[in-house]
Amino acid sequence: MSILAQVTTAAEAVALTAADQKSISAAGYAGLAYGLATLGPGIGIGYLVGQSVQAMARQPEAAGMVRTTMFLGIAFTEALALIGFVVFILLKFV
Amino acid sequence: MGATMTSPTHIDGDAPEAMIARDMVKKAAIVGPILIIAFGFIWGVHGALSTAYGLSIVVANFVLAAAMLTWAGRISPGFVMGAALFGYLIRLSLIFMAIWLVREASWVELVPLGITIVVTHLGLLFWEMKRVSLSIAYPGLKPTSASKESTSK
Known about the structure:
Mean pLDDT of chain B: 83
Mean pLDDT of chain A: 83
Structural class of chain A: mainly alpha
Number of strands of chain B: 0
Shape of chain A: rod-shaped
Number of helices of chain A: 3
Distance between the termini of chain A: 43 Å
Structural class of chain B: mainly alpha
Radius of gyration of chain A: 25 Å
Order of helices and strands of chain A: HHH
CATH architecture of chain A: Up-down Bundle
Strand content of chain B: under 5%
CATH topology of chain A: F1FO ATP Synthase
CATH superfamily of chain A: F1F0 ATP synthase subunit C
Largest interface: A-B, 35 and 43 residues
Number of helices of chain B: 4
Order of helices and strands of chain B: HHHH
Helix content of chain A: over 70%
Largest sheet of chain A: none
Strand content of chain A: under 5%
Oligomer: heterodimer
Number of strands of chain A: 0
CATH class of chain A: Mainly Alpha
Low-confidence stretches of chain A: none
Distance between the termini of chain B: 56 Å
Radius of gyration of chain B: 20 Å
């Protein structure tokens, strides 16, 4: 077998099919979408907790109520990230 | 003059997060079996197992969040901020790992698992929010141990 034929055979073995390339790019985009989905809730939780701590410092007697609503707010904001994560999992593996 | 404001070094009193998380676990114990049976009918035994797994992830997420915030609140309010943000990252990573590790297991159905995570997370939150907002708006309606004792008699 000539060297050229050997190189061609090796290249064919290594070359990705169009379907492989499509699935790799889809996985990349799904990961990017998940990253973006966690960005917004991260900013939201930072703002929410910052304001709650400020409220507790201003009115320590209302700390219980502030903490209750803060915890629920954190969980609601986190739901956005969870939805993004679930969509990522479903797009990637189903 | 002379009166100086001092910022609190830690948050006193009972931790409401722990109370909310405990209440949510109770609600999950009520809703969980219904959801498991319903998804079991649609997706079979694997669907029921995946639903139970998703439910346990959601409950563990709530309990872990409450534990971290309670622990941070006992140290300082500033630490609550750090615990909330890094706790968010840590808990999302744990959920990611929990699903990534079982994604190819024979008993996992990803569709009911995903639906369970989103539906139970939002459903339990709305249910709890309804109770909390009622007790904040009308504190007199908030169940107390005294009222529970009087109704049980």
